[in-house]
Amino acid sequence: MAGARYTPPMTVPSSASDRDLGDLFARNRAWAAAVQQRESDFFQRLAKQQNPRYFWIGCSDSRVPANEIVGLLPGEMFVHRNVANIVVHTDLNCLSVLQYAVDVLEVDHVMVVGHYGCGGVRAAWDGRPLGLIDNWLRHVQDVAATHADELRGLADTSALYDRLCELNVVEQAVHVCRTTIVQDAWRRGRDVTVHTWVYGLRDGLLRDLGFAAAAPGQVAEHYARAVARGFTPRPG
In the prediction, which pLDDT does 163 show? Predict the structure, then answer.
């Protein structure tokens, strides 16, 4: 009917699962109300544009919420996540997000962020068949093969997993730097820097692995420096 007002459908939870989902909607309403109480025009401003300076490429792990870790609000960080924070040149999803971040949003910083205790990294090293994901984790196994001598020289399995996590981050950052997207941006004089970080689940802290390339000629130097640092046991 013309002029009729839309009324959202009312649903009655039919199972415990539905009630759990209803709780999520309740939490959403509470969150939105709290944000509006702090800044009455926050959502109006957010709807008009996003203008982040940072692009985070991280792991899909639910324990690693990108914005919360660095204390940023929605709209302040652009995020792409996948299992084990992998960047490969055939992944059009990741490359499309990277291009949008660099060319459209014009971010200043791209951070590849892994985390200690990463199940994808552990599964890649252990080599137990898991199904389709084995094809994806092959990329982490390639990293392990490149650094096999260092990894096998570590004192225990926990240290090995953590070091492979770090090395994977560094290798994926190099992949970011070698994409046509970042190479073209640097060629045009764009000021964009690629970083390598690792997050500790046990203490909530980020570690900088020492890679911060801002030009093609810096990639090899920063890679060598990050790899040469070696692994120092730490919490997380």
Answer: 97
Q: Verify whether residue 41 is a known catalytic residue.
A: no
Active site residue 19: no
Residue 43 identity (one-letter amino acid):
F
**Alpha-carbon gap, residue 234 to 232, rounded angstroms:** 6
Choose, from 80, 109, 115, 175, the residue flagged as catalytic.
115
Q: Which amino acid is at 38?
A: R
CATH class of this structure's domain 50-228: alpha beta
Rounded distance, CA 55 to CA 206, Å?
Answer: 16
pLDDT for the residue 203: 94
Max intra-chain CA distance, the chain? 74
Q: Where are the domains of the chain?
A: 12-48, 50-228
pLDDT tens sequence across 134-176: 999 999 999 999 999 999 999 899 999 999 999 999 999 999 9
Does residue 94 carry a catalytic annotation? no
177 noted as active-site residue: no
Catalytic-role residue among 80, 94, 109, 118:
118
Q: In this model, does residue 178 exceed pLDDT 50?
A: yes
Q: Which of 5, 63, 128, 152 is catalytic?
A: 63
Specify the pTM.
0.87
Tens of pLDDT, residue by residue over 18-47, are 778 889 999 989 989 998 898 888 888 888
165 is catalytic: no
Assign residue 204 a region: left if phi > 0, alpha if psi is -120 to 50, beta otherwise?
Answer: left
Q: What's the mean pLDDT when you consider all of the chain?
A: 91
